[in-house]
């Protein structure tokens, strides 16, 4: 079956702009989580959505937001981009139950210049 | 706060050598443990997971890990590595929520 699909794969934005990243989970998966991966901070949890509701949130500023649609697809938005937002953004989907296995997409590489 | 520590940041081995990567997790609450691997240019893939039961967990590609509750450890092992095992390895902890806390990762380079 198809895996987790993230679009776009690569993105270059200018400081101050905003960006929207998209994630399509595995069919039947209702939980979508987002992570930021950087060389300095490693993999950090941004937030999780389940059935269109944010269920958990990490320690990121309010410029980072997300949403989930009724078909479980999720989008992540970052407003007023900063150089430090340059990172690989990963999406993970789960079938839904807490503690189950997470499947990751290939990520969106965001570069802020 | 919950945390995961991986003590080996870079490991270089020759093919056929044995591998053990350390992982320690913080105490408290429900603990689910995972090892993920990230091959160059590829997405994170699950190697193995521990939720409960037998503390010796077998994963894919000949990897295994042992959950030792008294030491808060979940070390990854492989008796004989191959060049194709060159990758970055992440230990992660889950719990009562779906939030995963990752270690900083270990870069493994296997020399042919």
Description:
The complex is a heterodimer of chains A (113) and B (112). Helices cover 0% and strands 53% of the residues of chain A. Chain A has strands at residues 5-7, 10-13, 19-24, 31-38, 42-50, 53-57, 64-68, 74-78, 87-94, 103-104, 108-112. In chain A, strands 2, 4, 5, 6, 9, 10 and 11 form a 7-stranded mixed beta sheet that branches. Chain A has a 4-stranded antiparallel beta sheet with strand order 1-3-8-7, with no helix packed on it. In chain B, strands 2, 5, 6, 10, 11 and 12 form a 6-stranded mixed beta sheet that branches. The mean pLDDT of chain B is 94. Chain B has strands at residues 4-5, 10-14, 19-21, 24-25, 32-38, 45-50, 56-58, 64-68, 73-78, 87-94, 101-102, 106-111. Chain B is built from no helices and 12 strands. Helix content of chain B is 0%, strand content 49%. With 112 residues, chain B is an all-beta fold. Chain A binds chain B through residues 3-4, 31, 33, 35, 42-45, 48, 50, 55-56, 58, 90, 92, 94, 98-107, and chain B through 30, 32, 34, 36, 42-46, 49, 51, 90, 92, 94-105.
Key descriptive features of the protein:
heterodimer, A: 113 residues, mainly beta, seven-stranded mixed sheet, 11 strands, 53% strand, globular, B: 112 residues, 0% helix
Provide a count of the helices of chain A.
0
β-strand percent of chain A reads over 45%
Distance between the termini of chain A: 37 Å
Distance between the termini of chain B: 41 Å
- Gyration radius of chain A, in Å: 13 Å
Q: How many extended strands of chain A?
A: 11
Major sheet description of chain B: 6 strands, mixed
The pLDDT mean of chain A sits at 94
* Proportion of helical residues of chain B: under 10%
* Proportion in β-strands of chain B: over 45%
């Amino acid at each position: 079956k198809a895996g987790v699909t993230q679009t776009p794969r690569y993105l270059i934005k200018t400081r101050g702009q905003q960006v929207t990243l998209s994630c399509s989970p595995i069919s039947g998966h209702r939980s979508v989580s987002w992570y930021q991966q950087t060389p300095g901070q490693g993999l950090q949890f941004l937030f999780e959505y389940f059935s269109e509701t944010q269920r958990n949130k990490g320690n990121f500023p309010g410029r980072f937001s997300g949403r989930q649609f009724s078909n479980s697809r999720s989008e992540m938005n970052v407003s007023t981009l900063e150089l430090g937002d340059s990172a690989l953004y990963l999406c993970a989907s789960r079938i839904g139950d807490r503690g189950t296995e997470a499947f990751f997409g290939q990520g969106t590489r965001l570069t802020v210049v | 706060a919950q945390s995961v520590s991986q003590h080996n940041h870079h490991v270089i081995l020759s093919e056929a050598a044995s591998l053990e990567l350390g992982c320690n997790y913080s105490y408290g609450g429900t603990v689910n443990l995972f090892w993920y691997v990230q091959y160059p240019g590829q997405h994170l893939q699950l190697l193995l997971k521990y939720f409960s039961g037998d503390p010796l967990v077998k994963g894919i590609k000949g990897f295994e890990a042992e959950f030792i509750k008294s030491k808060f450890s979940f070390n990854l092992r492989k008796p004989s590595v191959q060049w194709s095992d060159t990758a970055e390895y992440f230990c992660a902890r889950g719990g009562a929520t779906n939030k995963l806390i990752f270690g900083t990762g270990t870069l493994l380079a296997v020399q042919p």
